[in-house]
Write a structure and sequence with these properties.
The protein has 145 residues and is mainly alpha-helical. The protein has two domains: 48 residues; 71 residues, Winged helix-like DNA-binding domain superfamily/Winged helix DNA-binding domain (Arc Repressor Mutant, subunit A, Orthogonal Bundle), CATH 1.10.10.10. It contains six helices and two strands, in the order H-H-E-E-H-H-H-H. A two-stranded antiparallel sheet has the order 1-2. A hairpin with a 2-residue loop joins strand 1 and strand 2. The radius of gyration is 32 Å and the shape is elongated. GO terms for molecular function: DNA binding; sigma factor activity.
Length: 145
């Protein structure tokens, strides 16, 4: 019988050395990437005021500008009026409306989330819509804020 050139022990040693070399090279790559990233990074305290302003934007949606309101059936609706109408709803109805219209949850998902029947969710949503409509109709003309 012919014996192979390498014994099993030699193969294991070669594989072990290969694995260690791969790990060492990966560690070197990670270290080099980190060093490159650090040369490009800058702390907030080192930013100029102009650079700081580029990091964020201000949402002017609720500043009450004239262009932010809209007309519905001859009534002026502002974001503040709409927010006040939502706050006028009872807490459980407000949750239902917000989950349905703003978080795009279905009646079934809302029912599971709030642990109530789906029909209750549907009732809360439709009755809330009617209350919002009445509130906006009554207050749209008096609201100047």
């Amino acid at each position: 019988m012919i014996e192979p050139d390498r014994t099993e022990w030699q193969v294991r040693c070669a594989f072990n050395a290969f694995c260690k070399r791969v790990l060492k090279n990966e560690a070197i790559n990670i270290y080099n990437e980190r060093q490159q990233r650090q040369t490009k990074e800058m702390t907030f305290s080192n930013l100029t005021p102009r650079e700081e302003k580029q990091l964020y934007t201000l949402d002017k949606q609720y500043e009450g500008e004239e262009g932010e309101s809209f007309q519905v059936a001859g009534k002026k609706i502002t974001p503040k009026l709409l927010a006040k109408a939502l706050r006028a709803l009872p807490k459980e109805k407000r949750k239902t409306v917000l989950l349905y219209y703003f978080f795009e949850k279905s009646d079934v998902e809302i029912a599971e989330l709030l642990d109530i029947p789906r029909s209750t969710v549907q009732y809360r949503r439709t009755s809330s819509f009617e209350r919002l409509k009445r509130f906006l109709e009554e207050h749209a003309d008096d609201w100047d804020d």
